[in-house]
Amino acid sequence: MTAPHIVDPAGLLGQALADASPDLMRELLQTMINALLSADADAVCGAEWNARSAERTNRRNGYRHRPLDTRVGTVDVAIPKLRSGSYFPEWLLERRKRAESALITVVADCYLAGVSTRRMDKLVKTLGIASLSKSQVSRMAEDLDEQVAAFRHRRLDEAGPFTFVTADALTIKVRENKQVVKAVVLLATGVNGDGHREVLGMQVATSETKASWNTFFADLVARGLGGVRLVTSDAHAGLIEAIAANLPGAVWQRCRTHYAANLMAVCPKSMWPAVKAMLHSVYDQPTATAVHEQFTGSSNTPTAGCPRSPTTSATPARTCSPSPGSPTTCGARSGLTTPPNGSTARSAAAPTLWASSPTATPSSASSAPSWPNRPTNGPKAAATSDAKSSAAADLP
To answer: Which is the CATH superfamily of the domain at 159-254?
Structure first.
C-alpha cells in the first residue's frame, strides 16, 4: 500500500468513473439533472407534479429538450414548461461549470455512499435550488440505485475480452451502528483489445484480505471477465493470491507507482531525486536482462541515509520489466501503474454511511485491516505523505 495521505473519496471516484466509464457517469448525471429540474419546477409551481394542493400557483406543461455539453459527453436535459410564465434553470445553464462539477461530485458520492436527504439538501443549497422533499429524494434514490445496480451487475464479456486489468483498494471511513470504522473499496479497471478502458467492478469490504479480494475477483469472473493476460497491482499478498486463483492464465506485475512510494517511504526527502533517477535508469532499459543488471548495480551502490530493507532489495523482475509471456501492446499504452494514482490512500474525509451504500457488501473476513496503521502527526505529516505520493506518481 502507498503511504497514507488525505484524499477526497467522492472526487477520486468521480474522476475514475468519468475516465473509465463515461457512459455510466453520463447516464447518472442526466438522471440527477432532470430530477433536480423537476424538483425545482415543482417548487416554482408551489406543489409537486400531479398533486393537489391549496398552495399551488402554477402547473406543468410538458418539457423542452436541450443538449448540455459536459466533461463526460452531451446530456439530454428535459427542461419543464409551465402553463403560465416560463421556467429557466439559471443555476444550471448560466453557472454551467460550477453546477457540473458539483453534480458530478454528488453523483460519485451517491454511488459510493448512497443517496440521503441531508446529502441532497446540501447539494441543492450549493446550486441555489429550494430544498427537496423526502418523496423527491426517494424517487431520485430509486432511479440512481437502479442504474448503479445495472452497472455493477452487467455482463463483462460483451465489452471484453479485457487484456489488461489493474486492481487497487481505497481505504475510507464509514459510519456503522453509530460508530466510525474503516472500510475499503475494492476497484478493478480493465483495458480491452481496442484500448477502451472502463471500471469492471467496485465493492466495499471490511478490510483488504485474501478473502475479500477472492470474493471480488470471483464476481468479476462470474460476470464474464476473461482473456486477461496481465494484471497490475501493489504487492498485497492476499491480492496476488486471489489473482492467481481466479485468473490462472494471467501474469501479475507490480505497480511502479506503489513500488516507488515504498522506496521513498524508507528514504529521507533529500534522497527522493536520487531514488527517482535510479528507478528511471532501471525502467528505461530495453531488455529484461539489462533491467536486472541495472537494478543489481543500482541496489548495490551505497546510499547514505537510505537504509536497505526488504522493499528496496526486492527482485525487480515483476516491477521494472514485463514478465515472461506478458503482452506488450493492447491498442493503447496501458502502463504499469494502477489508475487513478493514489487510489490506495487512506482518507481523512468525513465518514460515509455504510448502510446506505449501494456498493456495500461487507466481507466476512476480519474487520481489522491487514496492513499496519501508520500514525500521522497532523497537517505536516499529511503534507509529507502527499508529496511522497505525488513524487511517486510522476515516475512512470
So the answer is: Ribonuclease H-like superfamily/Ribonuclease H (3.30.420.10)
